[in-house]
Design goal:
By secondary structure, this protein is mainly alpha-helical. It starts with a helix and ends in a 5-residue tail after the last strand.
Length: 153
């Protein structure tokens, strides 16, 4: 029986699990699909992406607090039917961000490089490319972060 790859990569230990079940893997949680057993970069789910949207205000209260105070109400949250791009980005978890780092005068080139690596066709205007990339990111459960790096660093 081979050593566990999860324990080796995360804990730096060569462990062999006689029952074949890795207790470390069971503790992992994926922010993409919301399931246990793997990390986001290992996720194979195509439906991942957005943070789970609560249906009631009570879902925002931790279960132990609801139990302690015997909260049994269900107050529906009325969400807008259609999300604008800013609200959609707010619902995407921080761990699901794609960051494009650029220096002065390189923003357009870096955005085009990222689009090419993701298989997204570019257009002539930089602002249109940013919008295409943002839209692609949202559709794939990602948030785009454009990060300007100082040249002096």
């Amino acid at each position: 029986m081979a050593a566990c790859g999860v324990c080796r990569s995360l804990l730096g230990q060569n462990r062999i699990h006689s029952d074949g079940i890795c207790p470390t893997r069971e503790l992992l949680w994926c922010a993409h699909c919301g399931e246990a057993g793997h990390l986001p970069h290992e996720c194979s789910s195509q439906s991942f992406g957005h943070v789970y949207r609560p249906k009631t205000l009570e879902e925002l209260i931790p279960a132990d607090v609801r139990e302690r105070w015997d909260i049994q109400t269900t107050t529906p949250i009325l969400w807008p039917k259609q999300l604008d791009i800013l609200r959609a980005e707010c619902e995407i978890a921080d761990v699901n961000s794609i960051t494009v780092c650029f220096r002065d005068g390189q923003r357009d080139n870096k955005i085009r490089e990222m689009m090419k690596s993701l298989g997204i066709a570019t257009v002539h205007k930089m602002d249109a490319n940013v919008e295409k990339l943002r839209t692609w990111c949202i559709q794939h459960g990602r948030r785009l972060i454009l990060k300007h790096e100082n040249s002096s660093e």
